[in-house]
Amino acid sequence: MLSSIRLQNFRRHTSLNLNFSDKLNFIVGGNGQGKTSILEAIYYLCTTRGLNSKSDIEVLKFDEDSFEIEATFENLSKDSVRIFFTRADSKKFYFLNNKQVNKSSEIIGKFPVVVLTPADHSITQGSPSERRRFIDSVLSQASRIYLNSLIDYNKTLKQRASLLNLFREKKTRNLLTEIDAWTEKLVISGVELIKQRTRFIVEFNKYISDSYSKVMNGEETPEIIYSSNIQETEAPLEKSFFELLNIKKEEEIKKAVNLVGPHRDDFIFKVNSINLKTFGSQGQHKTFQAALKFAEFFYLKEMTGSTPIFLLDDVFGELDSNRAKKISEYLRTVGQAFITVTDFANFSFIEREKSDVFVNLNNRSLIYA
Amino acid sequence: MQIAEPLQIAIEELNKLPGIGKKTAQRLALHLIKSEETYVDNLLNALKNLKIKLRLCNRCFNLSVEEFCNICQSNKRDQQTLCIVEEASDVIAIEKSLEFNGLYHVLGGVLSPLTGVTADSLHIKELILRFEKEQITEVILALNPDTEGETTSLYLAKLIKPLGVKVSRIARGLPIGGDLEFADEATIGKAMINRITL
Ligand SMILES: [Zn+2]
Questions:
Q1: I need a surface site. Which of A68, A154, A362, B77 has the fewest CB within 10 A?
Q2: Fold assignment, B5-53
Q3: CA distance A321 to B180
Q4: What is the pLDDT of residues B50-78, one digit of tens each?
Q5: Cα–Cα distance list, A123 to A143, A267, A289, A319 (Å)
Q6: Could you tell me how far CA A217 lies from the centroid of its own chain?
Q7: Distance from the CA of B153 to the center of ligand 1, in angstroms?
């Protein structure tokens, strides 16, 4: 669990020290009071990256030269993570247990975190790239093998596009054999990615139905369908991949773009066999987004063996009281969560427990309920 | 603080070396100031000779003093087996293993169109000519198992296989003497995929 954080010149917080409960932590405050920044700091310390891809400069307090944030985790052992950023170097420095570490990868994955924010609407309502990003992020956190395959595939895409571009300019025949080699590499790495995604979706569907019924109290049946432009028919994946590449070869060279492969995959979300993106109601979208994050939580817990920290930003305001109550009760039983709300008075239906922590940012006071 | 200019310049130059930070560079420079003059002269000569006396072997592009390197000149090496590597440093690594007694061919890099490296910027044309001039029957590809290294292996296999030469790639997997539990998942995964029948 995350037992405390310290923020210095992070967003609008000049200096802030907070202690947390191992169950529910409510961060209460009006707009612009800096409640989301507290979740951002937690996310930063777990992942070394900004929430919603915010840059380091963006989270630095206006007019300041550097920020420093620190977290103390108490699990089997007590660990501290500190991140220091200076405007002058435009560089971050990482410290694990007060010892400087050079690579962010020494921190990433040590303290898994799951976030549910209003921005998640894009996962179910946005373009396929948003869904790929979600699936890739869950899989990469759970499996180093997948992360390596993904990096390898993305590198291959960049190299191949660059070569296609070179061929378009120079039209040297010699380059054709080179394109063939990069194509073969694309197929090898791409098939690897497709196989891992296929296996993952089968597994993840169990988690999504579980969280849909248990957490969201939904009576509908959710499902994720993996939709790749390369389909396994009677022929092996490799063959279908090569065939499709052959059909698109001229167009690929003309446009100097990779047109075939798992970088164009989509994942179709269904509720009771009906396509959510096309026919889903606003409520079904919200429920599905939350269910995805709960599924991520339980999946990571199972695969990594450590319980993630759950961050919920401004989510309760968008859910009906029944669902919000259900979610908060469930969260209490599974682990530690951080929940931002504008006004707790609106959430009187949530039963307060002794161990819960309330951080009230309106009057800058810490209330332990 | 002002540092005397010669010292400043020496620190900056040393700092350009891989793995040498500002602090280490300063320590090395101060150490050299205190060292005997003959030592500094010897060091200077050794460094200069790296550029003056060393060249690339005319046949395999390994580092060499003469037109052909020691390995190419040796009559104890198997002339029919060729090991293809990225850099001369890989030759040193494989030679240390004492497991290979054939000849080498150093490509001078791997395919990477993003950074402007295509086949004609590597020693590949010279490699193909060797198959005409020499009696090579087997090729071992010993390139790094990264994206570019693997693609270069695929490319070379496409060129060499039609010549009727046996082509293999070095196996990769767990480091010898390494404990399974300390190897990262990616290595174990690859080792599982590339398992061999006994
Ligand atoms: Zn030689």
A1: A362
A2: Helicase, Ruva Protein; domain 3 (1.10.8)
A3: 51
A4: 999 999 999 999 999 999 999 999 999 99
A5: 21, 10, 7, 17
A6: 24
A7: 21
Instruction: Look at B185 and A189 and tell me if their CB atoms are within 8 Å.
Output: no
Q: Tell me how far the alpha carbon of residue B66 lies from the centroid of ligand 1, in angstroms.
A: 10
Strand-pairing partners, residue A10, are A13, A60
Domain B74-169, CATH number (from 3.40.1360.10, 3.50.50.60, 3.30.565.10, 3.30.1360.120)? 3.40.1360.10
Residue B67's H or E segment, with its range, is: none
Return the CATH number of the domain spanning residue range A2-112+309-368. Answer: 3.40.50.300
Q: Do B159 and A177 touch (CB under 8 A)?
A: yes
Question: Any idea what DSSP says for residue B117?
Answer: B
Residue B175 buriedness (CB in 10 A; 0-12 / 13-18 / 19+): exposed
Tell me, what's the pLDDT at B176? 57
Chain A / chain B CB contacts < 8 angstroms = 60
Q: Identify the band that residue A57 occupies on the pLDDT scale cut at 50, 70 and 90.
A: confident
**What is the band of A365 on the pLDDT scale with cuts at 50, 70, 90?**
low
Task: Determine the average pLDDT of the residues in B42-47.
Answer: 95
Out of A144, A177, A184, closest to residue B186 by CB? A144
Residue of A nearest to B112 (CA): A159
> Where in chain A is CATH 1.20.1050.90?
125-274
CATH superfamily ID and name for A125-274: RecF/RecN/SMC, N-terminal domain (1.20.1050.90)
Q: pTM for this structure? A: 0.85
